[in-house]
Structure formats: C-alpha cells, structure tokens
Write a structure and sequence with these properties.
InterPro entries (chains A, B): ArsR-like_HTH, AsnC-type_HTH_dom, Dimeric_a/b-barrel, Tscrpt_reg_AsnC-like, Tscrpt_reg_AsnC/Lrp_C, WH-like_DNA-bd_sf, WH_DNA-bd_sf
Protein name (chains A, B): Lrp/AsnC family transcriptional regulator
CATH topology of the largest domain in chain A: Alpha-Beta Plaits
Structural class of chain A: alpha+beta
Number of strands of chain A: 5
Strand order of the largest sheet of chain A: 3-4-2-5
Oligomer: homodimer
Largest interface: A-B, 60 and 59 residues
Shape of chain A: elongated
Largest sheet of chain A: 4 strands, antiparallel
Distance between the termini of chain A: 19 Å
CATH class of the largest domain in chain A: Alpha Beta
Number of helices of chain A: 5
Strand content of chain A: 25-35%
Domain HTH asnC-type (chains A, B): 6-67
CATH superfamily of the largest domain in chain A: Lrp/AsnC effector binding domain/regulation of amino acid metabolism (RAM) domain
Pfam family, one (chains A, B): HTH_24
Number of domains of chain A: 2
Order of helices and strands of chain A: HHHEEHEEHE
GO molecular function (chains A, B): sequence-specific DNA binding
Helix content of chain A: 25-40%
CATH architecture of the largest domain in chain A: 2-Layer Sandwich
Radius of gyration of chain A: 20 Å
DNA sequence: ACTGAAAGATAGTAGGC
DNA sequence: GCCTACTATCTTTCAGT
C-alpha cells in the first residue's frame, strides 16, 4: 500500500467512473473543467495505484436466466485452517457461487448463489454444495425482490 | 421482455465484457474471429435489448476506506405493503447501504453495509438503521475475509 | 449477417508553463 | 500539476456480398 493520497479531482473521477466506466476522457474533462490530458493522466494513476481494480459490464441477470438469487449460510464442523482453506478452494469452483465471504458470528461462510430457478438451486445444493467435506449445516434464504443493488461506493 | 434470443457469438461477447468492459471492438473481433463492424453491431444490440445494463469501474474498497462489510438481517413488525415500501424507501437512502434485498424466511430484508470500520458501523446502526419505523430486530454479521466476489455470470 | 474501407472521434504522447 | 498540440488508434457508418 502506497502513501499516496487522492484529491477532490481524483474522487470526482472515481465517482463518475463507478457510475459509467465508458465515459470518455473528453466527457469527464467537460464535467470536471480540466483538460483531457489531465484526466488521462489521473485515470492512469488511479489504475496504476490500484484504486480502480477493473471495469466490467453489468448484465441483466433475468435476461440470461439467473432468476433466483440465494444467500446460503454455511457452518463447518471444524475450524482448522486446513478445513477452512479446503472449503474455500472447493466452493469457489462452482459457477453458481458469485460470492463467498468468511464471516463472524453463528455461521462460517455466506455464499451468494445465482441459478435459473429453484430446481437448479436444489440441484446445486444437493449435488454440489452439500457434498463438500466438513459441513455441519447450510441455511438458505431466497431473494424475493431487489430493492437496491449498487457497485458504486459513495466517495 | 422481447422474444429475441442470443447466439454463441453474443454469449462470447458478454463473457468477455463481463470480465473487461474496456476491451476494444478490435480486440474482441480478434478473439472471436469476426469483423470489427460485426462486433460493433452485436454490442449495440446487446445494450439496446437490455442484456448489458451498464458498465462500471470496480474500486478497491480498502483504498477508499471501506474496510468493513456487514450483512444485516432486518425483521419488521408488520408486513403490510405500506410498511415494506416505507422501509425500502428509507433504507436505500443511506449511503452505507450497498444492497437491499427482500427475502424469504425468518427475516424480511438483508442489507449489505459498507463502512470504514466498526465505529462507523455502530454509528450507522444506532443513528440511522435502528431509527427506522417498524423494526423488530436487526442481526449483524461481519465479513472476515473475501474468498470470492464476482460480478460476472458464467454464460 | 457479415465484411472492408472511409470519415470522424478519442486515446495517448510530448514539450512547455 | 496542468495545459495545448500532435499522432496513433479506435469507433461508427455505409455500400457491397
């Protein structure tokens, strides 16, 4: 981690690019009232220093048949680093697993699972997730509706 | 929802752009062995038909001081549509709330909260979230480590 | 649907303030 | 750190298959 700090111009650029990664330098230079070359150099630095990790297209999941989102809370029966690491190694390989976080509290991991429907989730649960070693329990919760889903941090 | 289906070329383009939204048409045309104009037209259609919702820059949250991610499970004390809608309306306004889903099961909503640290979460909890109307309980779980966090659906 | 090529716009670089 | 000006590269359009 470098000691470099970002200023208000950097923050404004990050704010804009979090909303739309395809903005041209020209558009950003117009909004921020700086020259195109300045914007170009700032964005280069923000990437180089790791503030911007990557730019991605966000798809409409219903159009590509991911109608069901589940959160699955997993509890393991032992917490040696070997067991934890093995679970993580195996679970991230499943294409249904969009996210996996190790958590504090009454369970060990929370997974975000995307499937086409309940049948597909059931199949994932029975034939993939529940087959992994050292699982004590899995509790599943399903998304009824998406009120807010944002990738942009307020800056 | 239109009746239009996508073919293998569309799927390959979506796969590529989910990983890197800044790929040039030229690069995609090289990978897919199609002409630049073909790629250009395909991407235009994928956006127009709503497969691609938007393109965004993904930031390194630790560089911008969002070190703590919490999942907060919220239970309300009544489930009239008015109460549900009011909660949703209010909760999405908090900048700490990255995501809000209404859920099946033993609680009503799950929130993903991003703050700088536990003090900031505590402040959010006490002075923002817990002040909303009709809340019965809030249970908070904190991310210890991020094993996988992907925005790209396998296609 | 796809292609190649032209025209217009943008990214990226260099030199100066 | 920011600017103008220049060149390389890319996007976008279109006539042709």
């Amino acid at each position: 981690m470098s000691t470099t700090e970002i200023d208000n111009l950097d923050r404004e650029i990050l704010r804009l690019l979090q909303k739309d990664a395809l903005l041209t330098n020209k558009e950003i230079s117009f909004t921020t009232r700086k020259s195109i070359a300045t914007i170009h150099e700032r964005i280069r630095r923000l990437k180089e220093q790791g503030y911007i990790e990557r730019s991605v297209a966000i798809l409409n999941r219903k159009k590509i048949n991911r109608n069901l989102i589940a959160f699955s809370q997993v509890l393991l029966n032992d917490h040696t680093s070997t067991t934890l690491a093995k679970f993580e190694e195996d679970v991230v390989k499943f294409p249904e697993v969009m996210e996996c976080f190790q958590m504090t509290g009454t369970f060990d991991f929370i997974l975000r699972i995307a499937t086409s429907d309940m049948d597909a989730y059931h199949h994932f649960y029975r034939h993939k997730l529940a087959t992994l070693a050292n699982i004590t329990s899995i509790q599943s919760f399903f998304v009824l509706s998406e009120t807010k889903s944002d990738t942009a941090y307020p800056i």
